[in-house]
Amino acid sequence: MPTVAAIVCFSAFACLPQKVVVVDGDTIIVRGEHIRIEGINAPELKGKCSEENVLARRARSRLMELLETAKIDIERNGIDRFRRTLASVTVGGSAVGDILMREGLARKWVQHYSGQLEPWCQADVGQALKAWN
Q1: Cβ–Cβ < 8 Å for 92, 69
Q2: Hey, which residues does 87 pair with through a beta bridge?
Q3: With contact defined as beta carbons under 8 Å apart, do 9 and 72 qualify?
Q4: Which residues are registered as beta bridge partners of 17?
Q5: What is the pLDDT along the chain (133 residues), one digit of tens a residue?
Q6: What is the DSSP letter of 92?
Q7: Residue 128 phi/psi, 5° resolution?
Q8: Which of 1, 119, 124, 5 is nearest to 60 (CA)?
Q9: Residue 5 C-beta-side C-alpha neighbours within 13 Å
Q10: What are the start-end ranges of the E strands in the chain?
Q11: CA distances for 68 relative to 13, 34, 90, angstroms
Q12: Rounded to the nearest 5°, which phi and psi values hold at 59?
């Protein structure tokens, strides 16, 4: 899995250089802790359609770019059903999830997923993402 070198802060007093593993467009690993970016869902690397696979690689690459450009602030907010830490992740004061959604590389996460086709697998991806976000 790709990694970036970054300054990671888990609090205002604990900022240290860290290796950050970028699993996909919404999950990173820092010091062995799997961290899911709260509030978003990015395309899966082994998705349901070829468009999803392409967007998943773009989302992971973009997340890597964002994380290596500035100090990363991570605010833990709980644990998800896969035992990953749910966290707000910001770089340079901007929420990483918001950036990815704005760029069409993630959608808003919803707890009660209705099973509909992901926006990245629909004929009009842009319109589908607007409906999700």
Answers
A1: yes
A2: 37, 76
A3: yes
A4: 7
A5: 888 989 898 877 788 999 999 999 999 999 999 999 999 999 989 877 888 888 999 999 999 999 998 899 999 999 998 999 999 999 989 999 999 999 999 998 876 656 666 777 776 655 555 555 5
A6: T
A7: -65, -40
A8: 1
A9: 1
A10: 3-9, 15-24, 27-30, 33-37, 40-41, 72-79, 85-91, 94-95, 107-108
A11: 20, 18, 12
A12: -65, -45
Candidates 76, 93, 82, 94; CA nearest to 37 is 76
Give the global pTM: 0.84
Tokens of 31: 């010091």
| 104 contacts: CB under 8 Å, gap ≥ 6 | 55, 125, 126, 129
Tokens at residue 9, please? 């802060």
- Give the number of residues written for the chain: 133
Cα–Cα–Cα angle for 116, 101, 14, rounded to 5 degrees: 125
Task: Give residue 113's identity as a one-letter amino acid code.
Answer: Y
Q: What is the DSSP string of 117-128?
A: PPGGGSSSHHHH
Residue 65 to residue 47: CA distance in whole angstroms: 22
